[in-house]
Specification:
Order of helices and strands: HEEEEEEEEHEHHHHHHHHHH
Largest sheet: 5 strands, antiparallel
Strand order of the largest sheet: 1-8-3-6-9
Number of helices: 12
Helix content: 40-55%
Radius of gyration: 21 Å
Number of strands: 9
Shape: globular
Structural class: alpha+beta
């Protein structure tokens, strides 16, 4: 039986038990570019998880085949990032932390498991082939977002949630966005990862922590015109270079969390999407010159590769840049 058929059978079995079954993941993008975990649940070494203004988001893939005997793994880890684990394929596993069972049995694609910064006596048994995508969000980013959202200092011992399986459509959307980003480009931009780290942190805080505190939501205001103009001017001046969320927020004189939320309130899109649209718009002017190659145009407007440029252009414009160029009168 192939994996697709087994996933369908698993979903049917779970539905008979009354458990919610997420929609099966179809047309998965290539995941070859996602860094593999060298050890179970340990994030890959990445400067993006440091407190130097980086994206503070790391991504890994834990995958393997089970031929005969089940695979058992254990860890006793502290000072970890907040972790979102996403089942990419059907499997069967058990996971327990500090002696408490978190999940045990059939798992379908789209299943989400959340864990916090400590994994005391964590143990898992994988009984079938597995592929787990993980997003690691640093506690520094969570603290920054909490203080911006709640308007009060974060408790140093704050814990957003205990280990749990979560039925969360927003997190599924964020995880599939990560997969597509790695399929479009082997190394997603720092701005994309920066923006996504804040999306993860803000959602985890709002749904799993502030909801418990019954904290009222603060009204979101758009950027003042002068802050918005400064951010747009920075983008225009640096379109050919990598642009980080920290750069844009500094230009506007705001924290990253405040800037990202207020920028979206002002423009209707995230800073990352706005930059992509600016680059595509600039590329159209260059494409009018028949002497310039597609690759030259891509590099000139800040894309790291011709493939990434073509994929983004097709997604935003509706056709590939070469075809768009030929159709221009």
């Amino acid at each position: 039986m192939d994996n697709e058929a087994r996933e369908a059978n698993t979903a049917t079995r779970l539905s008979h038990t009354g458990r919610h079954v997420p929609a099966l993941v179809t047309s998965l993008p290539s995941l070859a570019h996602i860094p593999a975990e060298r050890r179970w649940r340990e994030p890959p070494h990445s400067p993006s998880l440091t407190a130097d203004g980086g994206a503070r988001l790391s991504v890994s893939m834990w995958s393997g085949r089970i031929d005969r005997a089940a695979l058992e793994v254990q860890a006793d880890l502290a000072d970890l990032p907040y972790t979102v684990s996403y089942a990419v394929r059907c499997t069967n596993l058990s996971l327990s932390i500090a002696g408490r069972s978190v999940i045990d049995g059939d798992v379908v694609p789209g299943t989400i498991v959340l864990t916090g910064p400590a994994l005391p006596n964590a143990r898992a048994i994988y009984r079938e082939d597995y592929a787990i995508l993980r997003a690691f969000v640093s506690p520094a980013t969570v603290t920054e977002c909490y203080e911006d959202i709640s308007g009060r200092p974060a408790n140093p011992s704050m814990e957003l949630f205990g280990p749990q399986e979560a039925d969360d459509k927003v997190l599924r959307h964020l995880m599939t966005s990560l997969m597509r980003a790695f399929a479009d480009d082997a190394a997603p931009s720092r701005l994309f990862l920066d923006s996504l780290s804040i999306s993860f942190a803000a959602h985890l805080i709002g749904r799993y922590h502030l909801k418990q505190e019954h904290s009222p939501k603060r009204k979101l205001s758009p950027l003042t015109p002068w802050r918005l103009n400064r951010a747009k001017a920075f983008i225009d001046a640096h379109l050919q270079q990598p642009i980080a969320l920290a750069d844009l927020s500094a230009a506007a004189g705001l924290s990253r969390m405040h800037f990202a939320a207020q920028f979206k309130a002002s423009t209707g899109m995230s800073p990352h999407m706005y930059v992509l649209q600016c680059r595509v718009h600039a590329s159209k002017r260059l494409l009018l010159d028949p002497e310039r190659s597609i690759r030259d145009v891509a590099i000139s407007v800040g894309f790291k590769s011709e493939t990434h440029f073509i994929n983004v252009f097709r997604r935003l414009v509706g056709e590939a840049p070469g075809r768009w160029r030929r159709a221009v009168p």
